[in-house]
Amino acid sequence: MIDQSVIEKVLDTADIVEVVSDFVTLRKRGANYVGLCPFHNEKTPSFSVSPSRGICHCFSCGKGGNVIHFLMEQEQLTFVEAIEWLGKKYGIPIPHKDMTEQERSTQSLRESLYTVNNFALDFFKKNLPGSIALRYLRSRGLQDSIIEKFCLGFSPESSHALADAALKAGYNKDYLVQTGVCMERDDHTLYDRYRGRVIYPVFSLAGKVAAFGGRIMQSDAKAAKYVNSPESLIYSKRRELYGLFQARQAISKEDCCYLVEGYMDVISMHQSGVENVVASSGTSLTTEQIRLIRRFTKNITVLYDGDSAGIKASLRGIDMLLAEGMNVKVLLLPDGEDPDSYAQKNGAAAFQEYLGKHQTNFIRFKTDLLLKEANGDISQKANLIKDIVNSIAVIEDAITRSVYIKDCSARLDVAESLLIQEVNKLRHHAIMQQRVERMEEQNSQSMQEKVEVEDNEQDSVEQLRNQVRQLLHGKMAGIIAKERTLMCLLVRYGDKVMCQTNYNGQNDYELKVGEFIIDSLNMDQLELLHPVYKTILDLFKDHYKEQDFVSERFFMSYPDDVVNKTAVDLMQDKYQHDNSTNAQNTDNLMELSQYVVNDYKYSIVQHWLKEIIKQLEDTTLSDQEIVSLQERYRGLLDVRNQLTKLLGNRVINL
Ligand SMILES: [Zn+2]
User: Fold this and answer.
1) Which 8-state DSSP code applies to residue 96?
2) CA pair distance 19, 218, nearest whole angstrom
3) Cβ within 8 Å of residue 465, ≥6 positions away
4) Is 145 helix (H, G, I), strand (E, B) or coil?
5) How many angstroms does the Cα of residue 115 sit away from the middle of ligand 1?
6) What's the chain's average pLDDT?
7) pTM (2 decimals)?
8) Dihedral angle at the C-alpha atoms of 216, 218, 223, 229, nearest 10 degrees?
9) How far does the centroid of ligand 1 lie from the alpha carbon of residue 65, in Å?
10) What does DSSP say about strands 209-215 and 506-512: parallel, antiparallel, or unpaired?
């Protein structure tokens, strides 16, 4: 958690035009700047930056926000990482508050391990020029620029070159062992884990060196082909994907990710101009890795070597991709080729063309593969159908499932109804199993609380999004739209004085817009439905009495990116033109506030009226129930009439 005052300082210091200019060429237009949107492909600029308000916005794809949101989107950083990025750029130290002693020592241990890895990376890179490793990499067709881009290096043949250099530079022996760059003998001397190997550093999403992979160069050696970092505080194999750091922007932009097997495949593809590619580096794909990819895209294409005996074994991993809601395609390379060799042999253009032409959707790929294998054998065909049904059943989206079922029914020559029946059976079973697992999970959660903090946050944000999505599309959508307007008013003008009035026995009290909103809701015991708006209103209640409270500034810098992102959204769009209206004028603010509140209440009354009509259709109601519903209906009609009068036929654009 970062202190709000620090976030305010960062926002005050950071120049949004300067930051955006690091990534986009901007031209001045009036008070604002415009450029080509970095978040979607376009030919005419629709990306606008307002230096006075400190926000940017794309009028085509709608992305943008303040400078922190821009960085989160552009560099695919978390909220905290974006603030750290800005802190670094503008020389503002970013202290993290609320850390326990334990957290602080864990944090500093993590930092120490990263420092050791940084030292090792420098060491490996320094040893590359003139080495056999460089000759090896060049012989495999890599250009120097790509070697540089992936920070490839060399660990010298001597068994203690790195250990000596690191100890001499004052690095702690424990940390050298914990990151795994060195290992310890029984006599407590150190030796290098990767000696004599080409080094492929593995970067975390934030660009830190989390681990190394070391590859031998002789193809006939007895030693293992690859040696990798052990698991440590900063490296979990399950949570890293090789190349994601270098690929994340391309994945976002192309809205698709290629999945390959090895380091060299990733690097070769980059050299061929295909940058949206990651490798699971030999391990079978994990749920954590899939979720990492899903942060950037839902579309994944798995590349298979032409002669891969492992295709069948890896099919299960693909079911996991489907279960996580990914759209999966498969691409089979010609016999005997892997992405690296194919790209080397045929060149970049041919490789890209091949990628474009030969992708098939996964279910079809699997069906054809298994059909070919069964070769007309009836008993095998039954198994095959079961197998395909298994894959289809894990897909969450009902429409996608039905499309696949149709396709398979034709290909397998099996009745569609039978496939549907089998899929449903499996899904029912899986749902029951999930429920049991979830209960068990909840029980064991207290045991391992902190382990998955980041994932849980991700999940709770995802849950919130789903909740909001349902609200926006449900029957309450009309009310939510009015709540939004109400919140626009609160975030923008909450701290402004609306009028002078007698209030709580005080004459000439300067009533603020926010207070008026709170009181109006309390009066009718109304609660906001939208969970984020509700949070914003609660935050306002807790803080508006503080000295120097400025609503807009407070929410924009609030250290929770769901809240501050929503606040920026509320400040944007239809408010764009408000410089020309004189809403700052107190008379106008009062009129505006009353209108917005009444309009909101009107939408609620409308909703209740409709609900009562629906309830009255129930034929099992007793006479008494009917009478009381009718009374309530008449009461609401009165309220609606009053509100209609108050609202008049004014149309206020918000
Ligand atoms: Zn855009």
Assistant:
1) B
2) 47
3) none
4) helix
5) 37
6) 84
7) 0.59
8) 0
9) 12
10) unpaired
